[in-house]
Design brief:
Length: 388
C-alpha cells in the first residue's frame, strides 16, 4: 500500500492531527476523547508549555487524501540538560491497523531526529514522560483513568514490526473496593508516625502555590533515580497545576514533615475520565453540563504521584500515604484507587502495593530505537519546513 507522510504546516493540518483519534477509536468504548481546545493549546508553539524548552514536528500519514495515522518527533532541551544529548522522542502516535502506515510514520520521526543529531529515539511520550504516554500492552478491558493512555491491542505489533524494542514497562495497580486491609498494618502505621515524629498535613487549597512548590522540589529529588526522569520546568509545573486544580482531592493529598521540613508527598486526584468521555471533546454547548453531572458520580481515585526524599526512604512513609488514602478515601465515598504509573524497577513501591493486595492490572510500554544515521528520505514523503 502506498502511503504519503506530510509534516503539518497549517491550522487545518493541525485540526486533522488533533481529530484523527476519533477515526481510530470510533468502535472502542473504552476510549476517552481529549478536549479539543486543550489539545490545540498543547500542540501550538505559541501556547504549549513544552515549546518553552523544546521543539517538535508533527506528521500525518495519508492513504490517498485521507489521514490514517499521526506522530510527533520532538527534542526536549530539559532532558538534554539532565540526561544526554543523543536522545530524541516520538509521541502522539495513532494509526490504523496497517504496519506499512506505521513504518512510514516512525521513519519520518526518525529522520527528523537524525537531522538534529539524535542517535536514539524513545517513546511514545506526548510530550513528556508524565503526560499521556506509553503504549498499553496489557489491560485492554478497563477504560483509562485520568491522564493515562489507552491503545488498541494491535499498536504493539505496529511499533515492534517498525523496528522498535522495549525500553521500559510501567504499571498501574488497582486497590479495589473489596480489598481488606489487615488491622496490623494500621497499627504499624500508627507506630511509625509516633516513633519517627513525622507530621502529615492535607492540602490547603488556599496555600496551593506553596504546596506545588514543595511537591516540585521533592519530585525533582525523589524521582531522579527513576528511569528517564527529568524535573519539571516552571512552565510545565504551572501547566500541571492548572490541569490538576479542578480534580485534585485536597483531603487526600498529603504532605509529610519532619522537624518542619517537607520530606514527602502523595497526590490524589479524581478520575474525571467518565465525565470527560461524556463531553466527547467539547465543553460547549452541552459538554460542560454533562461533565458536571457525571463528576458527582465519580468513585475512583488516581494516586498520580508520590515521593519521599532519599534520606527518609525505607521508613514506611509510603505505607502511611497508602493507608491514609484508603481509610479516608472510603469515608469520602471513593471506592477504588489506581496507583499509577510505577516503573518496573521501583521494587520497594511495588512490594508496598502488593502488601496491600493491590492488583497489577495494566502495563504501559515505552519503546526505543537506534537511529539509522544513513537512512535516505522516503520517496513519497512531502518535505516541508520545520515550522508549523
Amino acid at each position: 500500500m502506498n502511503f504519503q507522510v506530510r509534516q503539518i504546516q497549517s491550522h487545518g493540518d493541525l485540526r486533522d492531527f488533533i481529530r484523527l483519534p476519533w477515526k481510530i477509536y470510533s468502535d472502542i468504548p473504552q476510549w476517552v476523547p481529549p478536549l479539543l481546545s486543550s489539545e490545540e493549546k498543547a500542540l501550538s508553539p505559541k501556547s504549549g508549555a513544552f515549546f518553552q524548552n523544546g521543539e517538535a514536528a508533527l506528521f500525518l500519514v495519508y492513504k490517498g487524501k485521507t489521514p490514517v495515522g499521526r506522530i510527533s518527533a520532538h527534542v526536549n532541551h530539559q532532558y538534554e540538560r539532565f540526561r544526554n544529548q543523543d536522545t530524541g522522542f516520538f509521541g502522539f502516535f495513532e494509526c490504523i491497523e496497517d504496519v506499512d502506515a506505521a513504518k512510514a510514520l516512525i521513519a519520518a520521526a526518525e529522520r527528523w531526529l537524525r537531522d538534529r543529531g539524535k542517535k536514539r529515539m524513545l517513546g511514545p511520550m506526548s510530550f513528556g514522560l508524565y503526560d499521556i504516554s506509553g503504549i498499553l500492552v496489557d489491560g485492554f478491558n478497563d477504560p483509562p483513568v485520568i491522564m493515562t493512555a489507552y491503545s488498541p491491542p494491535y499498536y504493539r505489533k505496529l511499533v515492534e514490526e517498525s523496528g522498535l524494542a522495549k525500553a521500559s514497562d510501567w504499571y498501574a495497580f488497582l486497590v479495589h473496593r473489596n480489598v481488606v486491609v489487615p488491622p496490623s498494618l494500621y497499627r504499624i502505621r500508627d507506630r511509625l508516625v509516633r516513633q519517627q515524629k513525622i507530621e502529615f498535613e492535607t492540602l490547603d487549597m488556599k496555600q496551593l502555590d506553596r504546596a506545588v512548590e514543595l511537591i516540585g522540589q521533592i519530585f525533582a529529588d525523589a524521582w531522579m533515580e527513576n528511569w528517564e526522569h527529568v524535573p519539571f520546568t516552571d512552565a510545565e509545573l504551572d501547566h500541571l497545576l492548572k490541569e490538576l486544580k479542578p480534580v485534585v482531592v485536597p483531603e487526600l493529598t498529603y504532605l509529610a514533615f519532619h522537624n518542619g521540613r517537607c520530606i514527602g508527598f502523595s497526590l490524589n486526584i479524581k478520575d474525571a475520565n467518565p465525565a470527560l468521555q461524556k463531553a466527547n471533546g467539547r465543553l460547549f454547548p452541552v459538554g460542560l453540563v454533562k461533565m458536571i453531572r457525571e463528576m458527582s458520580k465519580i468513585t475512583r481515585l488516581r494516586t498520580i504521584a508520590m515521593g519521599v526524599i532519599k534520606e527518609y526512604r525505607h521508613r514506611g512513609i509510603d505505607l502511611v500515604f497508602y493507608l491514609n488514602t484508603i481509610e479516608r478515601g472510603r469515608e469520602l465515598g471513593f471506592l477504588d484507587s489506581e496507583c499509577s504509573l510505577i516503573v518496573e524497577s521501583n521494587e520497594p513501591m511495588i512490594r508496598a502495593l502488593e502488601d496491600l493486595d493491590a492488583q497489577r492490572y495494566k502495563t504501559f510500554r515505552f519503546y526505543e530505537k537506534t537511529i539509522d544515521q544513513n537512512s535516505e528520505p522516503v520517496k513519497n514523503e512531502t518535505k516541508c519546513s520545520d515550522g508549523q
